[in-house]
Amino acid sequence: MTRTPTDLLNTTGDLLSQVRTHGPLVQCLTNTVTTNLVANAVLAVGASPAMVDIPGEAGVLAQAAGAVLINLGTPSGEQREAMVEAARAASASGTPWVLDPVGVGLLPIRTALAQQLLELRPTVVRGNSSEIRTLAGSGSGARGVDAVDEVEAARDAAVEIARSSGAVVAVSGEVDLITDGATVVRVANGTELFTTITGAGCALGAVTAAFVAVGENPLLATIAACTAYEIAGELAAARVEGPGSFVVALLDTLSVIDADTVTSHGRVS
Question: 80 in a domain, yes or no?
Fold first, then answer.
């Protein structure tokens, strides 16, 4: 893929408009701590969330949804079963889906589940640097759900996962790194306030699912999702006093960000 930063920002604006025009249904199997923020972030960008995560229903909806998010934040026994069911149904029906391997490495149950889900060929894998390195077998995991590695330390692991699984891999951090195994793109927008709230990464995973639901190219859709979300966070942070007001401002900004805002504020390389 040969595209300039300007091309990528223009594509981000186009895909943002498509999300709002089509309002794709995003099925979210996510953790209980962040369900509200995840659902509201999906609504803010113009898509429709469906928090369907029980066996017997998860696979049914995965076949009909525009995209699926599978987030391993609080994987109960029933939810783990539903996640595998949804991933299999999504892969079989061609529904794009996003894997967020929260907390892999130190915690054995979710680590094994993440490896099982990775074999079901997600469209996108999104995580922090420690999670991505662990998933590739080159790291020992995060501190709980917090990364202990710099984003650039996960570059080779991200490329390896992308090449072996066929997924686009997005590594979140001070500068996001997105790759399909051949091209590596970096998004330098964002704010440290993302690290002061619960669910910032989970919400990004859901927003990414909304973008891949409408984008024909998963790499471009993932770049667009990260760019729009990080710009929204950066703009929201500039007008708040702390993490509580930041959550409100983030959702407000996600709901109004447009193509002009993207092209004037985006820092993509």
Answer: yes
- Give the domain range for residue 154: 5-260
Residue pair 67/24 in contact by the 8 Å Cβ criterion: yes
Number of domains present in the structure of the chain: 1
Q: Does the residue 58 lie in any domain?
A: yes
Bridge partners (DSSP) listed for residue 172: 128
Q: Which of 265, 228, 209, 254 is nearest to 68 (CA)?
A: 209
Closest CA to 200 of 177, 161, 227, 230: 230
Over residues 36-88, the pLDDT tens digits come to: 999 999 999 999 999 999 999 999 999 999 999 999 999 999 999 999 999 99
What is the tens place of the pLDDT at every residue in 200-252?
Answer: 999 999 999 999 999 999 999 999 999 999 999 999 999 999 999 999 999 99
What is the rounded distance in angstroms from the CA atom of residue 62 to the CA atom of residue 118? 17
| SS3 (DSSP) at 98 | strand
Residue 224's CATH number: 3.40.1190.20
CB contact burial 84-106 (16+ within 10 A = b; e otherwise): bbbbebbbeeebbbbbbbbbbbe
3-state secondary structure of 179: strand
